[in-house]
Structure formats: C-alpha cells, structure tokens
Design brief:
Elements lengths: L10 H17 L4 H9 L18 H14 L1 H22 L6 H8 L4 E4 L15 E4 L5 E10 L7 E8 L7 E8 L5 E4 L13 E10 L4 E5 L7 H35 L1 E2 L5 E2 L4 H15 L1 H13 L8 H27 L9 H9 L9 H13 L5
Parallel strand pairs: 1-4
Antiparallel strand pairs: 2-3, 3-7, 4-5, 5-8, 6-7, 9-10
The structure holds flavin-adenine dinucleotide (FAD).
Length: 387
C-alpha cells in the first residue's frame, strides 16, 4: 500500500501497540496505554487544522494511518476511529465553509477525546430517527434522556457527540445533534461490554439521564428522515471511510499472518515441503491477495475525493456505503481464507488470527449494514421504490 505522505504513527509505536493487543483482548480491558501513546504522538489531532494546533492531515492520510493502526490492533483502531470521525466531520464542515464545528477542532487540539454516542437499540433509522428524548432548556440547549448502545471509548471520552428527538418545540419534531461534556454528568456508563471481539474498544452502553448540551454545543436541528445536510454528509463520509480503513487493516494483517504461517507449516504428504509450495494453498493466498489489493486504491480515491471537494451528486452516498461494505466483507473473506490455510493453530484463543476472526465480525454490524447499503445503492441507480 502507498505510504502515508505524513506519518504520525512510527513503526516502533505500532509494534508496542501490537504487543499489547492480545492482553487487552484476554483481559477485556480498555486500551489505556495505547490511547496515551497515540495522544502523545499527536494522533488525536491528526485531522485538526494546523492553525488550531492540529497536524492538518488529509482524510486520505489518516485513512492510510488507520489501516496501519488496525493491522496492529483492530479494537484500538476502531475505538480511536470514533474520535477521528468527529474531527473528520469538523474538517468536512470547515473545508466547505461552515465553521459550526470550530469549537470541536479547538477542543480536540487541546486534548479532549470525542466519543460517538449515536447508536440506539432498535433504531434502524440510525441518523434519521431517534428513540432518545432531547428536551429543550429554553435557552437553545438540550438535555438528553435515552440509551445509547456500543459507545466505544466509554472509559475515556471527555466529550460525547450525541443526538435525540425534540418532540416539544414549536417546530418539532427535530433530530437534535449536540455535544455533552463528561464533567457535567447526566449519564451513566453501564459496564456491559463482554463481546466475542473488539474487546479493547470497551463500547459500553451509555444511559443518558439528562446530560446537557448548551446552545453553543448544539450543531444541528434536522427534520427526521433522510436529508442532504452537511452534517449527514460529514458523518457518512468520515464514518464509512475511516471504518473501511480499519477493516482494510485487519485484512492486510490476516494476509501477512497467513503468508508467514504457510511458509512455516510443513507437509508430510509433500516430503516436508512447506505449505507455501502447495498449489491449493497458493491459490487461496493469491485469491485473498487479489481481493485485498483492490481496496487500497479505492480507499485512496474516495477519501481523496472528500478532501478535494469532488461532487459526486446523488452517487456520493452509494460510493461511501459501497466502500464500507466492500472493505468489511473483503476483510471477512480474507481472514476466513487466512484461517483456512493456517490450520487449527488459529483456533486457539491466544492466536492473533483467531482474534482477527472475532474482531472482523464486528464489521457487518456497523452502519451501513448490508441491507441498508444495498438499499442506498439501489436507490442511487434505480430511484426510490414506487409507492
Ligand atoms: C465493536 C463495535 C463498536 C461500536 N462503536 C460504536 C460507537 O462508538 N458509537 C456508536 O454510536 N455506535 C457504535 N457501534 C454500533 C453499531 O454501529 C451498531 O449500531 C450496533 O452494532 C447495533 O447494531 P444492530 O442494530 O444490528 O444491533 P441489535 O442487536 O439489533 O441491537 C443492539 C442492542 O440493542 C438492543 N435492542 C435491539 N432492539 C431493541 C429494542 N427494540 N429496544 C431495546 N433494545 C433493543 C439489543 O438487545 C442489543 O443489545 C459499534 C458497534 C460495534 C460492533
């Protein structure tokens, strides 16, 4: 893959992060030491403009770094992704002349960590509907009441971007997007993260019990339902593409591990030669490599288009969800092939490939899931289903 133009994550740092991943997974522990080192390296400021104290990287460069980080520690990369997504949305805003998220850029530069408190149980409308109550405070701010699921970075976020439904204001209903401050309280983190994979992300349930976002932290009030607001584009573009980068990194690592393993494993059937000499194994590795190889230029091209303000019109969302689905599904396929050629050793819970097998499953649950992505792409090509 092309090297990032600007490298934030040194090889040494990635090796240290890699060396901790198995322990975090085994202990179901948050990646605290990784996060501290990533902060020290300036990684959480990567997408913040230099004038605010950030590193001023492009989305394309950060996506490339996320591929490298995920190849070392998928759960660390996935959780950090949530912070990168918000700083990515802020960059989308600023690049398009909207300074409504400048506060976020300044706060990220000052060391604040942004969580993504969006998902709700039973809400398959995702951004376009909400089961959380957003109650106006009569000064333009809101108190949020509801339950958010899978909040990655739950032990560490200091700001949480969230949303809820305002059903009482004169112009209601509106979906309200705002940012709450951890130090102001009004929420509870439920210690319920015990999953088969992505364990270090500690994506616990968050109960919002009146968490307050003041008027200057309310970013949008949007009509429920699909819309082409810049916030929607910002979240879709940053979220789907950085997520695709994470799963591309998992596939990359699985392929590397598979190559190492088949060179090491020997076959009695083939006079002690390595499996790397077996035509069936070679075919499978080649198949995985061909699928994996297609992702890098696509990721580069689409992230580059976001950076360069390319206008794909109604095809934008189709391109974004398509990239997410291709990357997550390819990663699953590559990990599967890597496991098949590597044999039963990968079935031990201490095996890195075994861990990747568990981690990669999470890819299918993130928005846009397969059904929603196909519906988006079909609509882009065929128009909506007629009533
Ligand atoms: C590793 C990982 C990290 C993630 N990190 C984040 C993050 O940081 N921020 C974020 O916003 N999202 C995050 N997500 C959320 C994710 O993107 C999806 O929203 C999530 O996977 C739920 O998918 P689902 O709707 O298929 O799950 P479902 O299984 O349908 O539902 C999720 C949970 O809600 C419960 N539930 C389902 N239906 C109802 C109902 N009607 N009423 C009450 N409860 C119900 C389920 O029991 C389950 O516990 C993360 C997901 C994963 C896998």
């Amino acid at each position: 893959m092309t090297e990032p133009a600007v490298r934030v994550l040194s090889d040494d740092l990635l090796e240290r992060i890699r060396s901790r991943a198995a322990g975090y997974d085994r202990d179901n522990a948050f990646f605290a030491d990784d996060l501290a080192e990533l902060k020290d390296a300036g990684y959480l400021r990567a997408l913040v403009p230099t004038e605010f104290g950030g590193l001023g990287l492009s989305l394309r460069d950060v996506a490339r770094e996320q591929v490298r980080l995920a190849s070392a520690a998928p759960a660390t990369a996935l959780a950090v992704n949530m912070h990168l997504v918000w700083t990515g949305v802020a960059k989308v805003f600023r690049d398009r002349g909207d300074d409504g998220l400048e506060f976020l850029q300044r706060e990220a530069a000052a060391g604040e960590v942004f969580g993504f408190g969006i998902s709700e149980g039973g809400n398959d409308l995702v951004l376009f509907g909400s089961r959380t109550d957003a109650r106006p405070d009569d000064e333009g701010g809101y108190a949020f009441h509801g339950t958010k699921v899978f909040t990655s970075l739950s032990p560490a976020w200091t700001r949480l971007g969230t949303m809820g439904l305002d059903s009482t204001s004169a112009d209601a209903p509106k979906i309200v997007f705002g940012f709450i401050d951890r130090s102001s309280g009004g929420f509870e983190v439920v210690d319920d993260w015990d999953t088969v994979g992505m364990r270090a992300s500690q994506s616990n349930t968050t109960r919002l019990t009146g968490a307050h976002a003041p008027a200057d932290r309310i970013v949008r009030r949007l009509d429920p339902g699909p819309n082409a607001d810049l916030l929607t584009f910002g979240i879709f573009s940053s979220f789907e593409l950085l997520l695709a980068a994470v799963y591309t990194g998992i596939g990359q690592r699985a392929l590397e591990l598979a190559v190492e393993t088949v060179k090491r494993r020997t076959s009695m059937k083939n006079d002690g030669r390595s499996y790397a000499q077996d035509p069936d194994i070679r075919w499978r590795i080649a198949d995985a490599a061909m699928a994996q190889d297609a992702l890098y230029p696509q990721l580069d091209a689409i992230t580059g288009d976001v950076d360069d303000l390319v206008d794909h019109g109604p095809q934008w969302f189709a391109k974004l969800v398509g990239m997410k689905v291709r990357a997550t599904e390819t990663a699953r396929d590559v990990v599967d092939k890597a496991i098949r050629v590597s044999g039963g050793g990968s079935y031990f819970s201490s095996s890195e490939l075994g861990r990747l097998y568990r981690d990669v499953l999470a890819g299918m649950f993130h928005p846009s899931d397969d059904e929603s992505a196909h519906s988006t792409v079909a609509t882009a090509w065929l128009g909506p289903i007629e009533a």
